[in-house]
Amino acid sequence: QLVESGGGSVQTGGSLRLSCVGSGLTSEINCMGWFRQAPGKEREGVAAILFGGTLTSIADSVKGRFTISEDNAQNTVYLQMDSLKAEDTAMYYCASGSLYGGDWDKEYAYTYWGRGTQVTVS
């Protein structure tokens, strides 16, 4: 299971840190990603991390503003979001998978999904 937290409402330019706690994941799972979906839009990949923290990927739309990190001891992956913009408003989902690589931002690369946490920037 994956459980997200940390969403909320924030003013433009503000920051939020999302957390995703994983439990019961099978051994082949080796990466975690964050996706977001705004109303009327397709779900898009935001960031991903290979467990161990050696490799990360960030979407161009958030590069320089968002950072993904992990805490292995807590089975938690974080998404630090700074300089938030109105266009960052969306439901944010974490997902885990075993195909980290060129398809990190594709939904089919992930096996498990959380229920999402809402981020609203105004």
Describe what you observe in this structure.
By secondary structure, this protein is mostly beta strands. 0% of the residues lie in helices and 50% in strands. It contains no helices and eleven strands. It has strands at 2-5, 8-10, 16-22, 31-37, 44-50, 55-58, 66-71, 76-81, 90-97, 110-113, 117-121. The strands form two sheets. Strands 2, 4, 5, 6, 9, 10 and 11 form a seven-stranded mixed sheet that branches. Strands 1-3-8-7 form a four-stranded antiparallel sheet, with no helix packed on it. It starts with a strand and ends with a strand. The model has no long low-confidence stretch (mean pLDDT 94).
Radius of gyration: 13 Å
The fraction of residues assigned to DSSP E strands is over 45%
The total beta strand count reads 11
Q: From the helix content, strand content and strand pairing, which structural class follows? A: mainly beta
**Strand/helix succession:** EEEEEEEEEEE
Number of helices, counting only DSSP H or I runs of 4 residues or more: 0
Largest sheet: 7 strands, mixed
Low-confidence stretches: none
Roughly how many Å apart are the termini? 31 Å
How confident overall, as mean pLDDT?
A: 94
Q: How much helix is in the residues?
A: under 10%
Shape: globular
